[in-house]
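Course assignment 3, question 2. Fill in each field.
Student: A.L.
Task: Predict the tertiary structure for the chain below.
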Amino acid sequence: MGELDLHMRVYYHRPGVKTWWSLRRRMFAAGFRNYLEATQPISDIAPLSQLVTGTR
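Answer field:
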């Protein structure tokens, strides 16, 4: 999985982003919308708080 793909998926599935996306999705190409909306959240990434404290 590419780094850009990883970042897009992490941010797309953050709370609040889907509200933003629903207002702006038509500004993106149909293929990109279909791809992004079909992705699943990434579950094996540690939260930033754990990375900062070194607890993971």
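Instructor remarks: The CA atoms of residues 10 and 43 lie 9 Å apart. Residues 3-12 form the longest helix (10 residues).
Grade: pending
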